[in-house]
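In response to a reviewer's request, we include the raw inputs and outputs for one of the modeled complexes. The three entities were modeled together in a single run.
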Amino acid sequence: MFAQQILNGLVVGSVYALFALGFTLVFGVQNILNLAHGALFMVGAFVGLYAVTLVDLPLVVALLLSILAAGCIGVLLDFFAFRPLRKRRGGEFPAIMSSIGANLILISIAQQISQAQVSGFPFGTFPIVIYNFLGLRITLQQIAILCCVMLFTTVLLLIIYRTSFGRQARAVAVNERTALLFGVNPSQVYALTFFIAGGLAGAAGFIIGLAFNSVHFLMGEPLLLRGFVVVILGGMGSVVGSLVAGLTLGIIQTMSVFYFSSQISDIIIFSLLFLILLIRPTGFFKGLRQDVRVGRN
Amino acid sequence: MRFFAIYQSLLDVLLINCCVAFSQYVVLRAGVFSLATSGIVSIGAYTGAVLTMRYGLPAWAGLLAGTAFGALVSIILSLPLARLRGAFQAIATISFMQIVVSVTLYAESITSGALGIHNIPKLVSTGTLVVVVAALIWLLSSINASSIGRAFDAIREDETVAVALGISIVKYHTIAFALSGAIAGLAGALLAYNTRAIDPEQFGFGLLVIALATVVLGGRVSVWGPVVGATLLTLLPELIRPLADQRLIVYGALLMIVIIYLPEGIVDTLKARWSRKSAPPQISAG
Amino acid sequence: MTLLSLNNVERRFGGLRAVAGVSFDVPAGRVTGLIGPNGSGKTTVINLVTGMLGVTSGRITFKGDDISELPPHEVARAGVARTFQSIRLLRDLTVLDNVVIGFHRHEKTNLVENLFGLPAARRERREFRDRANVLLKRFGMTDYANYAAGQLSYGHQRKVEVMRAVAAAPDLLLLDEPVAGMNDVEAYELADLLRELVADGIAILLVEHNMRFVMSLCEHVHVVNSGQLIASGPPDAVANDPAVIAAYLGEARA
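The model returned the following C-alpha cells for the whole complex.
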C-alpha cells in the first residue's frame, strides 16, 4: 500500500514538476511571478479536450496542439501584460498585479466558452491497461505520463544548455543590459521563454485533464499554488530542482491525502512551504537566478 | 426611504471593502509585499462569529477580539517574513492564506467547516460601519503625517536610504503588520456581524484580489487612495450591469490597464499632477 | 581626536578580496580623502563602515566603540551619515520632505504619540520642517523646497543628498563622490559648506575622483588600489608618490 501511494505520488508529482518548469523558467529569466500560469495550464486542457472531442484528432496531435495553443497564449500574455512594464522600476508588484488581471480575463473567457461546465473526455480516450509490477499496480497512462514528463524535461534541458537561444536566455537571466551588449535581443528571448513556459503548462494541463478526466475553467488555480511549492522547494530557475521538488510534492500530497484528508494535506504542504521560505528561500538547487535579496549579507 | 433601503446594503459592502482596502493599503504603503490580508480577515470574521454564536458575547467584545487577534497573528507572521522580500514575501503570505482556508475548512467542531456559520445576529449596521471607516481615515491620516508615515515612505521608496538614515526596517515592518492585521481582523468581525453568514472559501484568492485591486486603483500613499479604490470596485458591478456576464473580463482588463498606465493609482496621480505643475528652474541660482 | 578607526579591515566575497589589510584613521574637524582608481574598493570601504557589508576580519571603531558587527541602521543612529555614489533620493517626495526624513535619528516622540497624532508629534513635525527650511536656506535651495526631488537637475539632487546627510547632524559624514556631475561653481559652493561643517567639529571622509576638489579640501589623503592602502599623506605628497601615479596611469608609465 505504502509503495503504491509513492508510485501514485510520483506520477502526480511529475506533472506538478512539468507545470512548475514553465513557471520557474519565467521567473529565472525574467524575474516575474506569473500568476496567470495556471490559466495557460487550463488553456492546454481545453484545447486538448476540444481537439479530441470536437475534431476527433489522435491524442498525440491533440497534445501538440495544446502545447502550441498554450505557448501562443503565453506569448500574448507577455506582450500585453508584461512587456509594457519592462522599462518600469517598482519591483515585482506591477508585474504580479498585471498577471492577476490577465488571469481573470483568461479564466472568464474560458468560463464563457465552456459555460462553466465541467467536461470530460469520452470513455476510452486513453486505453485502460493495467500492469502488475513487483506487486504494484501501474497503468499504461501513468507510464505514458512519466515518459512525457521525462521527455519534456530533457528537451527543456537541451534547449537551455545546448542551444543558442538557451545561452541567450541564461545571459539575459544574469544581466539583461550586459546581454544587450552582446547582441542578444531581450524581447525575443522573453517572448520565446513565454512560449516554452506556456507550452509546458499546456502539456501539463492536457495530461492532467486526461488523467483525471476533468476539464473546467478553474482547474489551473489549485495548480498554481502547488507550483509555488515546487518552485520554492526546488529553487527559482532550476530545472532539476523543479523536477525533484515536484516529485517530492506529489509523494507528500498523495500520502497525506491517503492517510489523513485533503485539508490536512493542504495544511501540511503550505506549512512546509512556509518553513522552507524561512530556512532556505532560495531552495535546494542552484538555478538561473542566483541573486535573491534576503536582508543584510 | 426606499431608495436608501435598496442601496443601504451596497453602502455596507462599500464600507467593509474600505476597511479591507485600508488593511492592504497599510502594508503596501510601508513597502511590505504582504498578501495575508484575506487570511486575517477570515480570522477576524470567525473570531467574531464564534464568540457570539457559541459563547454569547456581545458585538463590541467580538469586534475587539477580532481586532486584537488579527493584530497578534499578523505580528507573529511578520517574524519569519522579516528576512524575505518581494516575490518571496508574496508567496509566503499567500501560503498563509491557504493555511487559514484549510484550517477553517478542517476545524469543523469550531467553524462548521465548509458549511460556514450562518444566522449570525445582525449586530453591526451602516451607522457603525460609517463610524469605523471615519475613525480609520482619521487614524491613518495622522499616522501618515507622523514619523511613522515618513519612515514608511523611506522604506517603501528605498530601503538602503532608510537604513542609512537610522530607520529600523524591522521595527517599522512590524508596525505595518500589526496595524494591517488589526484593521483586517476588525473588518472580518464587522463582515460577520453585518452579512450574517461566513464560509471558509470566501476569504481566499477572490477577496485578496479585491483588496489588492482597491489599492492598485486608488493608490497606496494617500489615505484616500483605498477609499476611492474601494468605492470604484464596489460600484463597478452596478455600473457595468449590461456587461454582467463579462464582469471578470472587465475587472481583469481594468487591473491591467491601471497598473500599466496609471501605476500610482488614481488619487496619488491626481495629487502629483495638481501640486507639481511645472519643472523647477534649472539654472544654479545659488 | 580620532573619530573613526579602521584596523586591518578585510572583506572577501568568496575567493575575491575586495578590501584587504586597510587601516587608517579619520580625525574630527578635518576632511580626509579616500581616493583610488575605479574598482579599487573605495565604495566597499564606505559600505563596511556604514554596516551595509560585514567585515570578514579586522575592526572598525567609531567614537571608541567597535561598530564592525553593528547593523546599518544602528551605525547611522550612532552618528554616521552618508551620501551615495548613485544618487539615492526619494524621487517622488518633495525636496523638503527628503530633508525632513534626514532628521529621523533625532526623533524624540514615541510610538503612541505618532500613532494618534498627539500634539507632541505634530510639534515635532513642525520643528523638523523649520529646521529643514533652515538647511535649505543655507544651501541656497529654498526655491526648490516643494518640487519633487526627482525633477531636479543632477547637481541639485546631489545637494539635496548632502543636505539630508547633514540634517542627521552626524559626527562622521561619508561622502561618496559628492561633486560628480557638478559644475565648478557648484563644487566650490559645496567645498565652502564642507569647510563650515568641519569647523563645527564634524569628521568628513571624502571619496572623490575630482582631484582639484580633493586637493583643495583634504588635509590628509589615503589611496587605495585593488583593495589595499598604497599611500597616505598630505595631498601634494600623495600626488607625487610614484606608487600612486603607477596605480592611476599603469605600471609602464611609472
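As requested, we also summarize the result in words. Residues 290-297 of chain A have pLDDT under 50 and may be disordered. Residues 2-108+135-293 of chain A form a domain with the ABC transporter involved in vitamin B12 uptake, BtuC fold (CATH 1.10.3470).
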